[in-house]
Amino acid sequence: MTELEERIGYAFRNAALLERALNTPSLRMSAPDAKDNQRLEFLGDAVLDFLAADMLFAEHPDEQEGMLTVRRTLLVSGHALSAAAETLGLRKWIRRNVGAHELPARAKTLADALEAVVGAVWLDGGLEAARAVFLRLDLPFHEEVDEWSANPKGALGERAQACHPPCVPTYEVLAVTGSAHEPVVTVRVHAGSLGEAEATAVSKSAAEVAAASALLRKLKDAAAGTGA
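^ thats the sequence. predicted structure below, dont judge the formating
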């Protein structure tokens, strides 16, 4: 069993499946005949959605569709998957174009590769093998959620409109680094009397969401600290 197989808790019968799951599309720039992981990524995305839905349906028997959807969205979001891939050390095995720059933290490429690995496990070992790998991943299985958790920008907008005077949150791009293919974007959100916060992510939209989440977290921590 390879080190990666030990980490995910599954030994492949068809090692070629795991190899393909680790081949990013950029690899074909230096190895034109290589098969990339996009098909496996597509499959793994669906497998993770199913496994998350199945687990949440059983664990929260009294919740309706809306909240279950929020939980599933957070559990297998790109952010959660890239973080789980980092914890797994997956970047060590990902194959990319020769000379490619270092992947930024929480890069989408990491999430894509993890989805592809799960898709490969599904093909090689079936449902229960995929479920076992899913449960070993460092995903936010027990994270506290509320109805706005899947839409931080909407939640912040609601809070801002309730202020006196009401305002609309504004998002400002502070920096963009990395390549055009894999940018790293830092965004600041300002929401009037609610304050401001900054966050960095692998796209402008993701950074805006992360900044909104950061400001909401600051507001929640402040309220808890004052007993409000």
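The two ends are 54 Å apart (CA to CA).
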